[in-house]
Amino acid sequence: EERKRTEEKEKEEEEREMACMHDHSCEDHDCSSDWSLYKHIDLSKVSALNEAVPGSAKSVFKAWENRLNSSEGQLVSNEGDPELIVFIPFTSDVKIKGISIVGGADGTSPSKMRAFINRDGIDFSDAQSMQPVQEWDLVENLQGVLEYQTRYSRFQGVGNLTLHFPENFGGDTTQIHYIGLKGEATQLKRDAVANIVYELMPNPSDHK
Amino acid sequence: MVLEGFDFTDFLFDLIYQATMICIDNSEWMRNGDYSPNRFQAQADAVNLICGAKTQSNPENTVGVLTMAGKGVRVLVTPTSDLGKILACMHGLEIGGEMNLAAGIQVAQLALKHRQNKKQQQRIIVFGGGPVKYDKKVLEMIGRKLKKNNVALDVVDFGEEEDAKSEKLEALVAAVNSNDSSHIVHVPPGSNALSDVLISTPIFTGDGEGGSGFAAAAAAAAAGGVSGFDFGVDPNLDPELALALRVSMEEERARQEAAAKKAAEDASKGGEQSTSQDATMTENVAVAPSDTENKANDLMDDENALLQQALAMSMDDPATTAATRDTDMSEAAANDQDLALALQLSVQDSAKDQSSQTDMSNLLADQSFVSSILASLPGVDPNDPSVKDLLASMQSQSEVSLFLLHPEQKNNEDKAPNEDK
C-alpha cells in the first residue's frame, strides 16, 4: 500500500511538473490574455479526423473565460472510437508555451496527447507511427485549470500544430470542450503564399 | 466547335480540390453484354467521362485509376491532373479474375494518402460489377476506417445482381457516409449507357458544391467527343443539329440498304443514282458545321463501297435512262442538305481513294460506259468543273486517253442545267 501511495505521489509530482495549478484567483494576472493564442488560429482551416460532426473541431477554440461554455458545440469522436486528431493552422508563426484541455465527463476525457508541429495531412496511421515532438499523459480536467507545459525550445516557429489523442479514460467516445494555447505570436509567416493568381497579362484593375 | 447556347459562366469551379481514385472492375464478369456493348466497355466510357469531368471542373483536381481484378490489385496511375495520361492507361486493359473489393479500397486509400497536395479532399469511386465475396461486417469496418480518415466513397453498383450484393454495398456506403459526402448508385442493365445514367447522379454533380460545374463539365466533355452522345452533339445543346445528323444518318442507312439490294440484282440504275446525288449536291450549298464533316468522313468508306457497286451495275446496262429506282435515295438527296454535302465530300475523296480505284479503273477503262452514265443523268453538265475534276482524278489512276469524252455524247448531255452551283 505504501508503494502505491508513493507511486501516486510521484505521479502527482510529475504532473505538477508538467502542469500548473491555477489555485489563485485570476485577478492577479489576466488568464484571458495569456490564453490568447486562439486569436491567431486560422479557424477556417482547422480540421479534425474521426469527429462525429464534421466541422465541430472549430468550436473548441475560444477565449479562456468561455472554456466551460459548450453552447457552440464540442468536439466528439465517432461512436466506439476514442481516437482524435486535431489539425490547427495558425495565421502567423507562434511560440507555444502551454496547452490546456477541457474534456468531457464519465471517462470521455482524453488521457494522452501527442503533438506534431509543421506537418500537413497527418492521419491516424502516420500519427501512430511517427515520433511526436512531445507527448503528455493527461488527467481529467473538467474545470480547465490544468496547463501542460511544452518544451519551449521545440515549439518556437510553429506554423501549424497537430494534436493526436489516442486514448481516453474508458468512455465510448472522446469529448473535448476546449483547447487552450498559451504563448506568443510572431509576425512571421512560415508558409509560401497560399493563393496565387496566374496572370498571362497584367491587368491594373486586379491590383488595386 | 462553338456550342451554341452553352453559357460557360455556368461553370462553377470547385474551390475545394479533390483527389480521386477510381477502382475499376476488370473481372471475368465484365464480358457480359447486358450493358452495351459489354459491361467492361460501358464501365470504361463512364470512367473516361468521370475523369474528364473532374479534371475540367478544377485544374487542381487529380484522378488516379486502379484495377481490382486480374492477377491482383494494380494501380495504373497515381492521382494526376494529366487527363491524357489517365486516358492512356485505360487502353489495353485485360479482363480476368475476380474483383477484390476490400483490397482495392485499401490500396486506393493508400494511394490517396500519398497524394502530393495534402489539401485535396480524398475520394474513392468504386465500380462494383462482379459479385462481392466479403461479408457485410468486413465492409462496414472498411467503411468506418475510411470515414475515420475523412475519405469519401462513391459506389456504382452494376453488373451482377446478387442477393446480398446491393445490401452489402449500401451498408458500406452508409458506414463511410458523413454529411452526405458518399453515394451509391444502382444501375440496372438496359439500353441506357452507364455513363448517361451516371451523369445525373451525385457522383457527377458532387456534394452540392459546384454541382452544376461537374454536370456542365461532363456535358462539355461528352460533346467534345468523349462519346457520351450519338453524334458527338448534345441534343440539349443543339437540337437542330442533332436532329439533322440523326435524319441524315437514317437516310444514309436506308440508302445503303437499297444499294446493297441493288447490288444483288441485275440493274444499272445505281450508278446514275449516286451521281445524281452529286448533281443535287452542287446545288445545295449546305453550311454544315464541322460535326457534319466529321460524320461525312465516317460515311466516306461506305460511299466508296457504294460507288463501286454503282459503277459495277452501270457496266451491264449503260444505255437505259435514269429511272429513280430508289425513291429513298432521291428523297434523301432532295431533302437533306447535310447528307448531300456529306455525299459530295465523300465522292470527291473517294475519287482519289486508291483502294477503290482497282475496280473503278477496270470499269472506267471503257470510256463509253462513263459517258453513257453521264448521258443519262438529268441535269448533269459534263462541262461542270466538279464533274470534270472527278473524271480527271479518276483518270490519273488509269490510262489518260480513255476518259476523253466523245464529242457526239455532248448533245445528249446538254440538258438544261436546272441546277446552279
From TrEMBL, chain A:
<protein>
    <recommendedName>
        <fullName>PITH domain-containing protein</fullName>
    </recommendedName>
</protein>
<dbReference type="InterPro" id="IPR010400">
    <property type="entry name" value="PITH_dom"/>
</dbReference>
<dbReference type="InterPro" id="IPR037047">
    <property type="entry name" value="PITH_dom_sf"/>
</dbReference>
<feature type="domain" description="PITH">
    <location>
        <begin position="26"/>
        <end position="201"/>
    </location>
</feature>
<dbReference type="InterPro" id="IPR008979">
    <property type="entry name" value="Galactose-bd-like_sf"/>
</dbReference>
<dbReference type="GO" id="GO:0005737">
    <property type="term" value="C:cytoplasm"/>
</dbReference>
<dbReference type="Pfam" id="PF06201">
    <property type="entry name" value="PITH"/>
</dbReference>
<comment type="similarity">
    <text>Belongs to the PITHD1 family.</text>
</comment>
<dbReference type="InterPro" id="IPR045099">
    <property type="entry name" value="PITH1-like"/>
</dbReference>
Automatic annotation (TrEMBL), chain B:
<feature type="compositionally biased region" description="Basic and acidic residues">
    <location>
        <begin position="256"/>
        <end position="269"/>
    </location>
</feature>
<dbReference type="GO" id="GO:0043161">
    <property type="term" value="P:proteasome-mediated ubiquitin-dependent protein catabolic process"/>
</dbReference>
<feature type="domain" description="VWFA">
    <location>
        <begin position="19"/>
        <end position="203"/>
    </location>
</feature>
<feature type="region of interest" description="Disordered">
    <location>
        <begin position="256"/>
        <end position="283"/>
    </location>
</feature>
<dbReference type="InterPro" id="IPR049590">
    <property type="entry name" value="PSMD4_RAZUL-like"/>
</dbReference>
<keyword id="KW-0647">Proteasome</keyword>
<dbReference type="GO" id="GO:0005829">
    <property type="term" value="C:cytosol"/>
</dbReference>
<dbReference type="InterPro" id="IPR003903">
    <property type="entry name" value="UIM_dom"/>
</dbReference>
<comment type="similarity">
    <text>Belongs to the proteasome subunit S5A family.</text>
</comment>
<dbReference type="InterPro" id="IPR036465">
    <property type="entry name" value="vWFA_dom_sf"/>
</dbReference>
<dbReference type="GO" id="GO:0031593">
    <property type="term" value="F:polyubiquitin modification-dependent protein binding"/>
</dbReference>
<dbReference type="InterPro" id="IPR027040">
    <property type="entry name" value="PSMD4"/>
</dbReference>
<dbReference type="Pfam" id="PF13519">
    <property type="entry name" value="VWA_2"/>
</dbReference>
<keyword id="KW-0677">Repeat</keyword>
<feature type="compositionally biased region" description="Polar residues">
    <location>
        <begin position="271"/>
        <end position="283"/>
    </location>
</feature>
<protein>
    <recommendedName>
        <fullName>26S proteasome non-ATPase regulatory subunit 4 homolog</fullName>
    </recommendedName>
</protein>
<dbReference type="Pfam" id="PF02809">
    <property type="entry name" value="UIM"/>
</dbReference>
<dbReference type="GO" id="GO:0008540">
    <property type="term" value="C:proteasome regulatory particle, base subcomplex"/>
</dbReference>
<dbReference type="GO" id="GO:0005634">
    <property type="term" value="C:nucleus"/>
</dbReference>
<dbReference type="InterPro" id="IPR002035">
    <property type="entry name" value="VWF_A"/>
</dbReference>
